[in-house]
Amino acid sequence: MYSFDYERPSGVNEAVSAIREDDKFLAGGQTLLPTLKLRLAQADKLIDLSGIAELKGISVSESEVSIGAMTRHVDVANSADVKSAIPALAYLASHIGDAQVRNRGTIGGSISNNDPAADYPAALVGLGATVHTNKRSISAEDFFVDLFETALEEDELVTKVTFPVPEKAGYAKFPNPASRFALTGVFVAQTAQGVRVAVTGAGPCVFRQTDMEAALSSNFSADAVSGIKTEASGLSADIHASADYRANLISVMAARAVQAAS
Amino acid sequence: MTVENGIGASVRRKEDQRFITGNGHYLDDINRVGQTYGYFLRSPHAFAKINNIDLAAAKAAPGVVDIFTGADMVADGIGGLICGWGITSKDGSPHNAPPHNSMAVDAVRHVGDQVAFVIAETLQQAKDAAELIEVDYEVLTPVTNISKALAPGAPQIHEEAPGNLCYDWELGDKAAVDAAFANAAHISKIDLINNRLSPNPMEPRAALGEYDAGSEELTLHTTSQNPHVARLIMSAFLGIAPENKLRVIAPDVGGGFGSKIFVYAEETTTIWAARKINRPVKWTADRSEAFLTDAHGRDHVSHAELAMDNDGKILAFRVSTQANMGAYLSTFASAVPTYLYGTLLSGQYKIPSIYVEVKAGFTNTTAVDAYRGAGRPEATYVVERMMDTAARDLGMDPTEFRLKNFIQPDAYPYETPVIMTYDSGDYPLAMNMAKEMIDYNGFAARKAQSEANGKIRGIGTAAYIEACGIAPSAAVGSLGAGVGLWESAEVRFNPTGSVTVFTGSHSHGQGHETTFAQIIADKLGVPIESVEVVHGDTSKVPFGMGTYGSRSLAVGGSAIVKAVDKIVEKSKKIAAHLMEASVEDIEHEHGVFSVAGTDKQMTMGEIAFAAYVPHNYPADLEPGMAENAFYDPLNFTFPAGTHIAEVEIDPTTGVVDIVDWAAVDDFGNIINPMIVEGQVHGGVAQGIGQALLEGVVYDDESGQLITGSYMDYCMPRADDLPNFRITTTNTPCPSNPLGVKGCGEAGAIAAPAALMNAIVNALGKDIDMPATPEKIWRAINSN
Hints:
The structure holds 2 protein chains of 2 kinds.
Chain A: E1 5-7, H1 12-18, E2 23-26, H2 32-37, E3 45-48, E4 58-60, E5 64-68, H3 73-78, H4 80-85, H5 87-94, H6 99-104, H7 107-113, H8 120-127, E6 130-133, E7 137-139, H9 140-143, E8 144-146, E9 149-150, E10 158-164, E11 168-175, E12 182-191, E13 194-200, E14 207-208, H10 210-218, H11 222-226, H12 243-260
Parallel strand pairs in A: 1-3, 2-3
Antiparallel strand pairs in A: 4-5, 5-10, 6-7, 6-10, 8-9, 11-12, 12-13, 13-14
Chain B: H1 16-20, E1 36-42, E2 48-54, H2 56-59, E3 64-69, H3 70-75, E4 107-108, E5 114-120, H4 123-130, E6 134-139, H5 146-150, E7 165-172, H6 174-182, E8 186-194, E9 206-212, E10 217-222, H7 227-238, E11 246-249, H8 265-277, E12 281-284, H9 287-293, E13 300-308, E14 314-326, E15 353-362, H10 376-394, H11 398-405, E16 414-415, E17 421-422, H12 427-437, H13 443-452, E18 456-465, H14 473-478, E19 487-493, E20 499-503, H15 512-524, E21 531-534, H16 552-578, E22 586-589, E23 592-595, E24 601-603, H17 604-612, E25 626-631, E26 640-650, E27 655-666, H18 673-693, E28 725-729, H19 746-763, H20 773-781
Parallel strand pairs in B: 1-12, 10-11, 14-15, 20-21, 27-28
Antiparallel strand pairs in B: 1-5, 2-4, 2-6, 3-5, 7-15, 8-13, 9-10, 9-12, 13-14, 16-17, 18-26, 19-20, 19-25, 22-23, 23-24, 26-27
């Protein structure tokens, strides 16, 4: 770790006005801190968001689940309100990383990092969520741009994420055996706007599987998607899985997500 | 009469209180006044010439005390690291052991190779300075795969090893094997890769070097499984200091699995540097360095063939193996694919003739050396995958095929064609018990049920054998070992009756403080709380050979028994004097000395006190009650058994669910069944890790280590493992006084073959380790 300055503001405005080039916001730190420790990243200053009360907390209405950016995965996983409104979202949060990661990691930190194998992007895109920042509201699909890239500007901070409550939703994940990130994760939701199928882990960025969405729109059953193939070209390949295998996992996980949907 | 907490009792581990409450003293817990911090600049390249190293900017950086390179050590007369076991090739030539300096002198040969040692007031300052070192590398094309390294035209890694060959070794009667194959009714063949593993002990390696300018004594705290051997090598071969001026201490050590047997560059550099700067120097590896530099295990490529007659009786076995040594020859690396491997290729079977040839070679990878099992898992894997293949080819049940070919219980001592003499065992018993435990005969019905559920079920057996209790000195000496493999012990009574046991074995998780105390409690009637076991300090314990090869109890425990025998012998003389009887009439049981035919008796404590306060004492006897002993085993020990694994595979993903596991192990007599059970659990977990999850991967072109962290190197976790059904059989070892065989490596030896046989049984086709979901999915979906 290289040395850096540290600030812990108590409000969003204070945080965004403090940030300069080469500074970084610190949320749960589950990616940033290991990267700093390994000297793979360097920051002039860390702006710790943990002191900003307005960024924390969950509120649930009949039509919407709203989660503050600094809400930890464990809090989403354990929230009775989330479990009741969108059980698949609580389930997804309960399977992120391991207990230590869930006790520190936050939704805002996770989506701002946009790791291609993170779980949350699948839920945001699958549910048609909206990302709220200090400047604007961005649809989930517009928010996730590419590998580790989002629509966020330098001085822009995620404040909360709002999820419309679906009719039913399910998430199925094939974990990377080593890291337990999503080797492939599929989030399926039946929403007022139609069926949505979002895939994480398989490609460089979360994406919608529109063939499956079409199939599920007429027949919301596991059988409707288990036979639908995804083109392997453009999917990720590494020592853990080839693109072909990931393409297969999309079909298998989609069917399981439909089966699990509630 | 049984003794409380004696032999056979599942005594809770005495050492766990301090470990679990955070009161252990691991190396990084130890700090010294004036301590500096060392950091190694490591090679980013797999293979490169070093044209120049410019230290000027780094030396001027804040907090830097000094920076050393390999050239400094050479100039100071420090020798290179050695390999302590000489292997002779087929043509009679000695193995090629190229120079292995603690830090690179002219070239780097694997990613992570040591280039410079930066010493600063803080670790941060050392790391900052290391970034200012300018190394002019001339990058060369690397080779990481052993078959490619041994092929013509491969990059030449060491001038001293043409064709990258370390040795081309053979064992067995080639002519007899060829003749048997020529007349065989059936021949089965198999090609296997034994995947390279990273050892991953919980505590990374570390060293703390200190120099006392007044006494000229050097003290090295280090994470070692054998501190005396480390001292011997550093003294005799590297010339760090004479043995009497070098103290090596291995305090609480958090696991080793073999990887801490070896004398490494970092430790030797740290202790050398402490004298150079006349201040304590601490170096602690981080996990990334552990992946890059802890000696790896396995990495064999093998072809095996089995010849059989019409009835399925084995006639002959031949094996050809390529073994990857890595970039340099580690401390005992040469012995692993030869005398710890080829000698076990008879398995549990009566095989009239066997021939094995092994080509070991160098690659641009981390050194490979002993890792839990060391050679014996590789042998068991070849033998047991071969047996299943042969049974499949013959259309026989694999357990029936094994039972037909087992060495029978009345055949001991049994001499194999690969120079081992098995001393005891009952292989059919363990096999039949394991089959019973897992309801082997009910497998077909369970398979049908799985099939109805869309799953593929398989069952697999491994009847393993290992040679442990390493090892008779004369035998290993004749095979090329540079050391004897005896063990030492001292049993020292204190005047008040408590006991301190000094052992040359080293505990880094095995529970010696409990098991060895149980021996004393049992033999001498001393409460276990009153027995202290001291190990791991060359200034405290007699010269010892350390812990590896499941030898601590069979060899180290036997040395303790020998010392106990001397204590008893002396005590009898004192008891006879004090009770006014003749020595011949003194009887001893569990620390009580009595006069035969009378009610007169004395306890061990009373006698020990009399020995230290000898007011009324035999005139011809020395006072005091402390005895030491050195024990050199008469033979290896031969733990053996059968493990059967049952799996269910999801064909849509290729995921293996281990649904059942039965293990029947013969460890001879058992001192602490709870500790033994834990060792089996841990060993099987590691074996399952090798079979399903673990595997070191290097990038073929660049030679970079891809699996350099837990993000990519998959260690087994609790939810990867099944519940185990474990039991033991007991044919006591006839060659040591405790009748024990050793249990530390068995699980890791048996498990990979059992699990892979189960997967192959399910799939109906061969597959290599690690059997990842994708590999299995591809096997299912290929023709």
